[in-house]
Design brief:
- This protein has 543 residues and is α+β, with helices and mostly antiparallel strands.
- The protein is built from 15 helices and 22 strands.
- Helix content is 43%, strand content 29%.
- The strands form two sheets. It has a 20-stranded antiparallel sheet, with helices on both faces. A two-stranded antiparallel sheet has the order 11-19.
- The relative contact order is 0.09.
Length: 543
């Protein structure tokens, strides 16, 4: 018997503690008592008698190589008391084989329960109780020691025949979706077919090489936040494990663009193993070729483009951008960052990325500028308007249409934009004081070159976003947004971030998503205000 998957939840005591924490943030401190009262109501006042409320519970899925046998595991102090609660719902309990109990539910279904060493094992068949997990607490603790709720799948314990069935099902699905479309040229179809085959090949590799997948959610009352993790581990010495190891410690030359005081900020960095790039180059090229074909098809079908000459110019510019992007992908190095600063009457965005062929990017920009010059409101591009640390900036003012009232409220009659071309990088800045902001980010980056960073990192400060949203919202929406913004400013004290990151681990990688207490407070306040508004409308009746 091998364990294929475990779904586990923290103990009842821990879950009640989490509910009390959420209640305190949502100005509903009675939530924990409400949960206990609800359980008492449904169990005719018995509560969870007989259940060990200090231990986790869950479902363990095992296999003997031929069949899958799920068993629910519940720690108990007195099984008879638990069965008394079950009888209160109209279930019939009878003695079964080998000391087990057979429970006939009111809906006609039958389940089987066996009690061993302080655990009640629950299954849909008696045969599933023949080979029980040796140590359910150890299995469940692999999840609940870190998460309130989670699942862990040992992919290599899935019998080979089922894994191959999954691969064959994916291939069959690909073949069904690869039928040539009526409006598709031979070239477009061939490009799409190559990309689909490359994707199936990659999925088949994942099925064969992935070892363990773990997904978990937790509320951390000590750090006052909630988070979700998704972890992927590959077989040691597998191709994917070697690929992960080949990345090494990511480093960035754009550290100044990740600004912790910003409303939103982003950083990404990776350096692939050259040998791995060679192996995957065909798939990369197939993907890029399909992207080009799809983009060209979309341009051809766009009704707002006035003539074929304009379509050709747009396609040419697009291909220049894609050439620069493809060269960067094939180099194996990805590096960049961005930050958005917000105020009640201010918006400034700065971004930068390593580009292998920035000349191609600049070529595409000039082609688009030639098209934009035909527009009567466009004042043109100021080429070579500024230079900083070897970065040549081109500036422009993009008009905001008069009918776009909300956009004009945020940006004014025009949006100032600066695009910088460096030796192997492209920079973009827009909004208030954009040149000064991007120059500072460049200087800060040069002061800290090759900084070790996670492969991916994102952060958003909800308080700043809500302040900006309230200042620019319609009159009907402003009170709620401003109320949430004020609450975050007074109570969250800067702990109002949503964060996401990706980190490399041994033979795998982990994605982490978290929300701090201010975000949870905001969700609770928004829900409460929406409920109050609905109640007021109900009392007023139809208008």
């Amino acid at each position: 018997m091998k364990t294929v998957a475990v779904v586990g939840a923290a103990s009842y005591n821990d879950l009640v503690g989490d509910v009390n924490f959420i209640g305190s943030l949502a100005e509903r401190p009675e939530l924990g008592q409400m949960l206990q009262g609800t359980i008492a109501l449904f169990t005719q006042g018995r509560g969870l008698e007989g259940v060990d409320q200090s231990k986790p519970w869950g479902v363990i899925l095992q296999t003997n190589g031929q069949q899958f046998m799920p068993v629910a595991c519940l720690a108990v102090t007195d099984l008879d008391k638990v069965l008394t609660i079950v009888k209160g719902f109209g279930a019939q309990v009878q003695d079964g084989a080998d000391g087990a109990k057979q429970i006939s539910l009111p809906n006609g279904q039958t389940i089987h329960v066996k009690h061993e060493n302080g655990w009640a094992y629950i299954a849909q068949s008696e045969s599933a109780l023949a080979s029980l997990p040796a140590n359910p607490l150890a299995e469940l603790n692999q999840i609940t020691s870190e998460y309130d709720l989670g699942a862990r799948v040992a992919a290599q314990n899935v019998p080979e025949q089922y894994r191959q069935m999954a691969v064959q099902a994916m291939k069959a699905g690909m073949e069904d979706g690869l039928k040539k479309k009526d409006d598709e040229s031979d070239e477009q179809y061939e490009s799409r077919r190559k990309m689909a085959e490359a994707q199936i090949k990659q999925l088949e590799q994942m099925v064969n090489e992935i070892d363990v997948v773990t997904v978990g959610w937790a509320i951390d009352t000590a750090q006052q936040k909630t988070y979700i993790d998704a972890t992927y581990q590959f077989l040691p010495d597998s191709k994917l494990a070697k690929q992960i190891a080949g990345y090494g410690q990511p480093k960035t030359d754009f550290a100044g663009f990740y600004q912790t005081d910003a409303a939103a900020t982003l950083s990404f960095a990776s350096q692939a193993d050259p040998a791995m790039i060679k192996e995957n180059i065909e798939q990369m090229q197939a993907t890029m070729d399909t992207m080009r074909k799809q983009a060209e098809k979309a341009i051809d079908e766009e009704d707002d483009i006035p003539d074929d000459e304009t379509r050709a110019a747009i396609k040419s510019a697009m291909n220049d951008f894609l050439d620069a992007f493809q060269a960067t992908i094939e180099s194996g190095k990805m590096d960049g960052g961005a930050s958005l600063q917000l105020g009640t009457d201010k918006l400034t965005l700065v971004a930068a990325a390593q580009i292998k062929d920035p000349g191609k990017f600049e070529s595409g920009l000039k082609k688009l500028a030639e098209l934009a010059a035909k527009e009567p409101d466009f004042k043109g591009v100021q080429w070579n308007a500024a230079n900083h640390e070897g970065v040549n900036f081109h500036t422009m003012a993009i008009p905001v249409p008069a009918e776009e009232a909300e956009a004009r409220k945020m940006f004014g009659e025009q949006v100032d934009v600066a695009i910088g071309i460096g030796s192997e990088a492209v920079y973009v800045a827009l909004g208030n004081d954009n040149l000064a902001a991007v120059n500072k980010a460049i200087d800060d980056s040069k002061a800290n070159p090759g900084k070790a960073v996670p492969p991916f990192e994102f952060s958003m400060a909800l308080g700043q976003v809500m302040e900006f949203a309230a200042a620019n919202a319609k009159d009907a929406q402003r009170p709620m947004l401003q109320s949430i913004a004020d609450m975050l400013k007074e109570n969250a004290q800067g702990r109002d971030h949503v964060r996401a990151s990706g980190v490399l681990i041994e033979n795998g990688l982990k994605y982490h998503f978290e929300a701090e207490e201010g975000v949870l407070r905001a969700i609770g306040k928004a829900a409460m205000m929406a409920q109050q508004q609905a109640q007021q409308q109900a009392m007023q009746g139809p208008q």
